[in-house]
Amino acid sequence: MKGGEFIVKETDKNDVTIPEEITEEQKQMAETAESFVVNEILPDIDEIDKHNLDLLKKHLKEASELGFLGIYAPEEYDGVDLDTKTTVAIADKMGAAGSFAVAFAAHAGIGSLPLIYFGTKEQKDKYLRKIATGEWIAAYCLTEPDAGTDAMNITTNATLSEDGKYYILNGSKTYITNGGIANLFTVFAKINKTDYAAFLIERTFEGVSIGREEDKMGIRGSSTTPVMFDNVKVPAENLLGEVGKGYKIAFSVLDEGRFLLSAAAIGGAKMALQEAIKYGNQRKQFKLPITKFGAIKEKTADMITNIFAGESLNYRLADLYDKEIAKIDHNDPQYYLKKQKALEEYSIECSISKVFGSEALDFVVDETVQIFGGYGFIKDYPAERFYRDARINRIFEGTNEINRLLVPGIMLKKAMKNELPLQQGAMAAFEALITPSFDEIDESKKYAAEKNLIKNLKTLYLALSGMAVQKYLDSIKKEEEILFALADTAINIFALESAVLRADKAQDIVNPNKLPLYDAVIKTVAFECTNNIEEAAKKAAFYIGGDALQSVLSGIRRFTRYDANDLLEAKRLIANIAIEQEKYIF
Asked: Which residues make beta-bridge pairs with 201?
């Protein structure tokens, strides 16, 4: 299935991979990562958060010895070149590591990927082994003081020397993760202020200087600095990729960075949930552990609901990646360039995963602080760190606002190129939306009601998208409020469908005694996602307006109708088992 096609096509459960069926080798890698985080990182997390960069670098080196810094790098450069599902499993476990996880992801992900995908053989021979083994630390330099979200308007400038041997680089970058410890920077600039380009710049090049460490709200132990370039002579052979194509490097690796962030966010949410339950079981009010009270049980169930949906969509996306990559001959000299090109296909789903994962984490850590009560506000307890560390994820790798705009924006671009049949189905979808009808559901099929709901929600998205384009034509890209509403609709559809596909496929995999838990979590996911979609769809309808508004609103009510009978029992079942086991239970 191509990127964005989930909105116009039905996906079969056998077309996805779910966490319950990862291989023993993938499980072992995840368990190694978990053991490393629990035994090496978490005991030192307070000291790391005091900005002990020597300790941070020590643990990065230890991670490299386990192969984690080279998860994307080819084996010929001492990397491990893992499949995407294994990478997700590792990132999930690393997500509990707070500041260390940020340094790890910045190095292994966006710090390394530009060189892996776009580097020449000579550039890889010179740098990649050092990066994959942790001998050198990598950083990615895109953001500037006046060009954060608007990355195309960077002002860092490079000029080719008269003899053609060097580019003279001037400018500055800000908020650079690993800036204070990195040896190699991928720096984005414009040649002669016009042609976007990328360069590999060593820390020791004359004219490179590192600013002071930022005193951050969260992820305090990671290094975040400005990096300045004053007439830096960059060898011409350190130009990465082609002149004028640097923006492709910048934005393409961000897709994987967003995906890696989402996987780590979901892993961090699992750790926060676990600590919240453990504390709740110990904390007594009115002579009872607070986990005995319905309010805490509901919070617990809602936290698990968000984690389950996020985990489901991440593995679904990982499977899409791996299937696309499998089509490429690994012996092809252009393998990594072709791999990167293949991954571009799923930029919509990457933005979805980033938004959903980061906001699921925010929800979970907020509820964790609430469960800890006053103690959640005190640094002696883990909830306070979870809360501070989580907030940056909605800003990292493109703000969630930008990623929301990308979801419908890229869909509409694909439609204009006839790569996604949005407009072909929009008219029929609109007619279905405003025409009263009654669906006949085959209750003999597992999750029939939820699958019918998903079909209706996709129709709803197509109808609203078509209405917006019909009214605004090409200027729809300026109607950000409408695009946000469409994005929230699409994000929740992908999350809900991913969860249902997972639960449906799990019927043949997990212990039958556990299946009622899957039924319960699907009930809660469907209820929450549908509520979110109804709210977003109403916004879109009112924003678009038109003579058919009342009919459209009636259609929204009809297409978001979901029988959540026994929802309370479903939430209590999820909460009771999680509280008993003191962990995420899927």
From this structure: 185
CATH number for position 215: 2.40.110.10
Which two structure tokens, joined as six digits, stand for 478? 């300026």
Q: Are 3 and 317 in contact (CB under 8 A)?
A: no
- Residue 297 within any structural domain of the chain: no
- Stretch 234-245: mean pLDDT: 96
Q: Tens of pLDDT along 84-125? A: 999 999 999 999 999 999 999 999 999 999 999 999 999 999
The two tokens of residue 91 are: 């990132």
Q: Is residue 540 in some structural domain?
A: yes
| CATH classification of the domain holding 471 | 1.20.140.10
Tell whether 445 is covered by a domain: yes
Interatomic CA distance for residues 541 and 203, integer angstroms: 53
Residue 280 lies in a domain: no
Alpha-carbon Rg for the chain, nearest whole angstrom, is 24
Tokens of 375: 């103690």
Q: Per the structure, how many domains does the chain have?
A: 2
SS3 432: helix
275 counts as catalytic: no
Distance CA 7, CA 457 (A): 9
Averaged pLDDT for residues 24-40: 97
> Of 201, 228, 246, at which residue does a domain stop?
246
pLDDT at position 90:
97
- Name the catalytic one among 275, 311, 345, 397: 397
pLDDT single digits (tens) 553-581? 999 999 999 999 999 999 999 999 999 99
Range of the domain at 211: 138-246
For residue 166, name the pLDDT band (cuts at 50, 70, 90). very high
